Amino acid sequence: MNLDLPEALRRVLPVARWEEVTVGMSSSRVYRSTRHVLKVKRTTEPFDTLFAEKEKLRWLEGRVPAPKVVAYLKDATGEYLAVTRLPGVDMSHEDARLHPRRNAELLARALRELHALPIQDCPFDASLRTKLREARERVSAGFVDEQDFDDERQGRRAEDVLRELLGTRPSREDLVVTHGDPCLPNVIVSGEFVEGFVDVGRAGIADRHADLALAARSLSHNYGPEFAELFLDAYGRFLVDASKLAYYRLLDELF
């Protein structure tokens, strides 16, 4: 398809045929060409802005594999973020599904590498102090899609989920640099290597279980529960708290 892009973007991006990316749960429209990925956000929702994702991608450059920022633009119609396209396919792709064991181990290794970054160098706060405040704001503003809750929470109201989160908040956070949403569509793999993480708008300092919970859930959904267990073993079972996995899956319902 041809995209009607603002002049400032047309000067930066080469003429290309674009296809829309429908896999994943991005709040933006996502398009890709052979060389680039373009995200377009035309909503007034103040959360998960493309400006924030742009800043996080630039911080991650040189630290862990991720796309490079090509251009960012905000105008009266919305936000645009153009990045380089990584080679390979995402881990939910049918070609990647042929290697579930390898991918579970690769994802564990990639997250260990990310989680090993020094938190004192990271300027982005995704701790519970920040996330619960944002959760309250999202619930109050009506931005939570209750129809998208996991099966075990279908029929519940966002206010009830928030109340449970506040009442069961862990007393301690094991803080690391996290991706924030390391589900399989956000991990690009090529052969024996993870080429990089995409959709890093939620990245920041948080409990490691914020990543482990969503990665394990995505592996279970896409490959089967045995591969979620393999992933947790490969990451380091001694670091895993089952109650925190459940808590951060609950927290994700409001985002």
Automatic annotation (TrEMBL):
A biological-process GO annotation: response to antibiotic
One family name in Pfam for this protein: APH
Lineage: superkingdom: Bacteria
Binding annotation for Mg(2+): N186, D199
Database matches in Gene3D superfamilies: 3.90.1200.10, Phosphorylase Kinase, domain 1 (3.30.200.20)
Active site positions: D181
GO molecular function, one term: metal ion binding
Keyword Oxidoreductase on entry: no
Annotated keywords: Antibiotic resistance, ATP-binding, Kinase, Magnesium, Metal-binding, Nucleotide-binding, Transferase
Residue ranges of every copy of the Aminoglycoside phosphotransferase domain listed in the record: 18-238
Family statement drawn from the similarity comment of this UniProt entry: Belongs to the aminoglycoside phosphotransferase family.
Name under which the protein is recorded: Kanamycin kinase/aminoglycoside 3'-phosphotransferase-2
